[in-house]
UniProtKB/TrEMBL annotation:
The protein's name: Adenine deaminase
Cofactor(s) recorded in Swiss-Prot or TrEMBL: Zn(2+)
All residue ranges annotated as the Adenosine deaminase domain in the record: 9-328
Positions with a binding annotation for substrate: D276
Keywords noted in UniProt: Hydrolase, Metal-binding, Nucleotide metabolism, Zinc
Organism: Halomonas qinghailakensis
Similarity field: Belongs to the metallo-dependent hydrolases superfamily. Adenosine and AMP deaminases family. Adenine deaminase type 2 subfamily.
Binding site for Zn(2+): H14, H16, H194, D275
Pfam family, one: A_deaminase
Entry keyword Zinc: yes
Record-annotated site: Important for catalytic activity: H218
């Protein structure tokens, strides 16, 4: 199964590029930028990656990205992950990035975009890896700030495939961002949102009704509402489920008890992704291998998950056709 999963062309729709910052690169960038880290060694940093919930993780995630200062840093961050992912048989990545987390630290959007777009161009030109861009907004910050950031990003709208909504879900319902998502729709941007990770199934319905999203990131708590499950089944809205993330953040107690088999059985359009691979124990291949071990899935299940992801990926029709062909002959 390992060999099969390694060579299977894999697609991930849910990856926070700042969450791909491995401790080794964090130390390198800290040194380059003269920044002191709260850890003495890479080993110490890794030992700190034990989380009891989403907020506990977010605290370290925002702290870790403090080493990202220059265009070169953002380029290095992204190309490092792209190269690793390609080595694991990943052929497409839809990448979230968090402008507000950088703006707050005084890093201009131009710096972030220039580095990430340079890495994307290089991946597409020479790595046989296509990359989608999701500009994500932090739901634990005010909607007015998000609206300002979206307007100021006007020169980059043409490079963005969608806007997203992430960060602390509890007590930050989708409805809080109604005006932002309305504006994104006016601009002609596709919309996606994290919902039903730590928040209730109602948040999934709200994201569909009020934010008019075409994708739900996570969505595992949909199983708490038959009505929401039926809506997702009928509409075939894709769920970007992140198995190792869910275990790390205690959304599920053990991968063997993950709701993924139930979601599939109910006929939902499911995909798997790595979310924040540097913090949750590995990238897309590691997620595939862990599911094979814990859930006993065969090749057909993994083909289905990646077929779903290819159908929904932010890429050209030509690339989609090519990836589908490669998947079917794997
Ligand atoms: N799993 C996650 N949930 C919400 N916001 C995030 N930002 C980065 N990873 C996240
Ligand atoms: Zn996420």
């Amino acid at each position: 199964m390992h060999e099969f999963l390694l060579q299977l062309p894999k697609v991930e729709l849910h990856l926070h590029i700042e969450g791909s910052l491995e401790p080794e690169l964090m130390f390198e960038l800290a040194k380059r930028n003269g920044i002191e880290l709260p850890y003495a060694t890479v080993k110490e940093a890794k030992a700190a990656y034990e989380f009891s919930d989403l907020q506990g993780f977010l605290n370290l995630y925002y702290q870790g990205m403090n080493v990202l200062r220059t265009e070169q840093d953002f380029y290095d961050l992204a190309i490092d992950y792209f190269q690793r992912a390609r080595g694991e048989g990943v052929v497409h990545i839809d990448m979230h990035f968090d402008p507000q987390a950088h703006l707050q630290r005084g890093i201009p959007l131009e710096v972030v975009m220039a580095g990430l777009l340079r890495a994307k161009e290089e991946a597409e030109a020479s790595l046989d890896l296509s990359v989608g861009m999701i500009m994500a907004f932090l739901r634990d910050r005010p909607v007015e700030e998000a609206l300002r950031v979206l307007e100021n990003a006007a020169p980059y709208w043409k490079f963005i495939d969608a806007i997203g909504l992430d960060s602390a879900e509890r007590d930050n319902p989708p409805a809080k961002f109604q005006a932002l998502f309305k504006r994104a729709k006016e601009i002609g941007l596709v919309r996606v949102a994290h919902a039903g990770e730590e928040g209730p199934a109602d948040y999934i319905a709200e994201a569909l009704d009020i934010l008019d999203v075409q994708r739900i990131d996570h969505g595992v708590r949909c199983l708490e509402s038959d009505i929401v499950v039926e809506r997702l089944r009928e509409s075939q809205i894709v769920l970007t489920v992140c198995p190792l993330s869910n275990v790390s953040l205690k959304v599920v107690d053990d991968l063997r008890n993950h709701p993924l088999p139930q979601l599939l059985k109910k006929g939902l359009k499911v995909t798997i992704s790595s979310d924040d691979p540097a913090y949750f124990g590995g990238g897309l291949l590691a997620n595939h291998l862990a599911c094979a071990d814990a859930l006993g899935w065969d090749a057909d299940v993994f083909r289905l998950l990646n077929r779903n992801a290819i159908e929904e990926a932010f890429t050209s029709d030509q690339r989609r056709k090519e990836l589908m062909h490669r998947l079917e002959s794997a």
